[in-house]
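User: Could you write out the 3D structure of this protein bound to 2-phosphoglycolic acid? I've included everything you need below.
Assistant: Certainly. Input first, then the structure.
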Amino acid sequence: MNIIVVKDYKELSERACSIIENQIEMRAASVLGLATGSTPLGTYQELIQGYEEGRTDYSRVSTFNLDEYIGLSPDHPQSYRYFMNQKLFSHINISDENTYIPDGKAEDLQKECIRYERLVEEIGPPDLQLLGIGENGHIGFNEPGTSFESETHIVQLTDSTREANARFFSSMEDVPTQAVTMGIRSILKSRRILLLASGERKATAIKQFIESERTEQFPASSLKDHQDMTLIVDQAAYQKAIEKET
Ligand code: PGA
């Protein structure tokens, strides 16, 4: 595992952006695994700027997002499809049909999970998967206790995850209770993994990530066995991990 410690969120976003841009430079038809949440927002802004400055062409790029809330339509402002359109896709020259996100409104959700996993296999697996980490170590919506063998599946969201995401909804009752998420095994299929963590809020999770053995109680620990895994972390998120060493 490579660990890149950067000064702050701005530098983290720039580093992540340049790794993604290099990937696309190496392979114009790259498949990217993307994530939602606040952590990748700065990276997306940097990617948009790179596109506007003519650094990157997304016309042959495909993307897979990790997850989607069940019950929210693509035009719901809190759906992950809407988030991705607003924060990245509508600002770059990627074709809509090359951007994949689970359908949280599918009539048959079990079938949707199977369909999505097949797509990941057929079009992917991603050359590069961008990930955030939850305060409880979740990746995607894979909460503690999720099997490392899991593929795309339906999850019941934990109270802590719903509370963490409630800030985006007008009330707690509006926060969906279920989601479709790529599983741990699906995520590990990616050729390279880029995990981002920023801010004091993530310091405990990062300390645990660095120190813990592989355990299903801490989903991000599954990444430690991946053959090409990079963690970019800013000083605030890294500080507890260092405290131990000094
Ligand atoms: P955040 O979420 O980027 O909004 O902190 C990360 C996650 O929960 O996976």
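The helical segments are 9-26, 41-52, 80-87, 109-123, 159-165, 184-188, 203-211, 235-245.
User: Perfect, thank you.
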